[in-house]
Structure formats: C-alpha cells, structure tokens
From TrEMBL:
One of its GO terms (biological process) is regulation of DNA-templated transcription elongation. It comes from the Bacteria. One of its GO terms (molecular function) is DNA binding. It comes from Pseudomonas flexibilis. The gene is greA. Gene3D superfamilies: Transcription elongation factor, GreA/GreB, C-terminal domain, Transcription elongation factor, GreA/GreB, N-terminal domain. Residues 82-155 form the Transcription elongation factor GreA/GreB C-terminal domain. This is Transcription elongation factor GreA.
C-alpha cells in the first residue's frame, strides 16, 4: 500500500481531531436515544439529524484512521541539514522579478494551508523546489505565466 508523507505536526493534528471525534461518540448516541423517545421515527427531524451527525463523525474517524495508518511520518528536524529542499523543510524564496519574499513549509497534501505558509508537496511550486539547494533559481509554471524564484534559505524546523 502507498505511504503518504506527513510531518510530525500534521500527524499530531490528525490524532487530536481523532481523539475529539471519538469523545463525541457518546454524546451523539445520547442524542439519538433522546430523539428516539420522541416517537415516530419517520417524521422525527431530531432523530434524522442525530443519525446524520453520527454518520459524518464515523466517516471522518475512518478517514483519519486510514490516513494515519498509511502515513509516513517524517521529522525533518532529525535529518542532516544539507541546504537542499526536502519534504518538511521550511524554505525562504524570493521572486526574482519583484523581490517579494515568501516562506513556505513543504508538507503533505492533507496538511496544506497556503494562508499559513504550508505548501503541498504535490503543488507546482513545491515540485520545482524539492531537490534544489540554497542559492538556486527555480522556474515555476503558474496559471499566470512563468515565475522564477531564488532559494534564499532552507531550514529544518
């Protein structure tokens, strides 16, 4: 089975969400029981809402358990610093044309959040950066055209 890369922080976040969802199980079961007591289940909106909530929670629990089971957790802070961009590293890059500097951490698909600087390893920018070193200039094809970035610094944090 295919293993999916994930940072230690990403695995912790999923484990925390799983813990919260499992803690909600008794509350959902209680809501179903209370709704059942209200009578006819065919026209019982509370019952159907509670059952739907239960279905969504159980689906998410199975999804998280599957992701964690197939995760290859990578702790970049334990790897030797070579100056190369690898999964989990934090990279400072500068747009060659505009001198705009941005910082990204290369993370797994599930962890990606561009607003917080977490870039999916399968994104065009990350694919262009991985394997390159500090000082290299990379070319990225974007929907708005070709953009060149210089790698300023690679950090293992």
């Amino acid at each position: 089975m295919t293993k999916y890369p994930m940072t230690v922080q990403g695995a912790r976040a999923l484990e925390e969400e799983l813990k919260i969802l499992k803690a909600e199980r008794p509350k959902i079961s209680q809501a179903i029981a209370e709704a059942r007591e209200l009578g006819d289940l065919k026209e019982n909106a509370e019952y159907h809402a509670a059952r739907e909530q239960q279905g969504l929670a159980e689906a998410r629990i199975r999804d998280i358990e599957g992701r964690l089971q197939n995760a290859q957790i990578i702790d970049v802070s334990t790897l030797p610093h070579t100056g190369k961009v690898i999964f989990g590293t934090t990279v400072d890059i500068v747009n060659v044309e505009t001198d705009e500097e941005v910082t990204y951490q290369i993370v797994g698909d599930d962890e990606a959040d561009i607003k917080s600087g977490k870039l999916s390893v399968s994104s065009p920018i990350a694919r262009a950066l991985v394997g390159k070193s500090e000082g290299d200039v990379v070319t990225v094809r974007t929907p708005s055209g070709v953009v060149e970035y210089e790698i300023v610094e690679v950090r293992h944090v």
